[in-house]
Amino acid sequence: MVELKTDASIDAMYDTGQVVAQALTAVRKAADVGVSLLELDEVAREVLNAAGATSPFLGYRPTFAPTPFPAVICASVNDAIVHGIPSRYRLRDGDLVSVDCGAQRGGWAGDSAISFVVGTARPADTRLIGTAERALAAGIEAAVVGNRMGDIAHAIGTVCRGAGYGIMEDYGGHGIGRRMHEDPPVPNEGRPGRGMPLRHGMVLAIEPMLIAGGGDAYRTDPDGWTLRTTDGSRAAHTEHTVAITEAGPRVLTARD
């Protein structure tokens, strides 16, 4: 069931979303050559704690997971697409890093992700990340009252496929509200004019996941969480929590 949020609830979700935005901004600032992924997780924890927020990631265990997730961010490096577990791995010059973070405060959840390069960026990585950001922007632009879910999916898929990138199989965005994952699913590829009508009060986590090699397949690490490209190519992941309103899409996790 899809819960339509009131305007007051959307305002409250914006407050939670700004905690996520602050955490990602702090993580991006701290990310440098020699910094470990565990240290980045600690940076995010400090932001959440200071804001009186908790993490919907920490301890989360969906049906596919062999163990609860042990961190407050997902940190996915190079060929890891999503769900990377922070470790003692220390960042190297040229690493492509995707960080996903969530927050829970006041009964509402927020969820967002960024991709960036540490140190010197390869042109191919800059193009990949830029395309992921354009795909996210296109999906947000299509998230308007009167459109359908397929319009969001088509907008994202058109940008990704047009640039020659793969789109991760079986994964996409999701509804969000009182819990991090709610109905409806938000695919990253689809046909325009199809699917659920978009209504005022729907809140969606829109999240393109791009594979540089052009294929859509992935594999799962032995940890049961980290999902990697099968061809070893790099990946990028971007995400925002977006409210659909009569005035247009409102990005609740927007970063300054």
From TrEMBL:
Record bears the keyword rRNA-binding: no
Catalyzed reactions: Release of N-terminal amino acids, preferentially methionine, from peptides and arylamides
Binding site for a divalent metal cation 1: D100, D111, E239
Co-factor requirement: Co(2+); Zn(2+); Mn(2+); Fe(2+)
Enzyme class, broadest EC rank: hydrolase
Keyword Metal-binding: yes
Record-annotated Peptidase M24 domain positions: 12-246
EC numbers on record: 3.4.11.18
PANTHER family named in the record: METHIONINE AMINOPEPTIDASE (PTHR43330:SF27)
Protein family (similarity comment): Belongs to the peptidase M24A family. Methionine aminopeptidase type 1 subfamily.
HAMAP family documented for this protein: MetAP_1
NCBIfam families (UniProt xref): met_pdase_I
Protein name in the entry: Methionine aminopeptidase
Species in which this protein is naturally found: Streptomyces variabilis
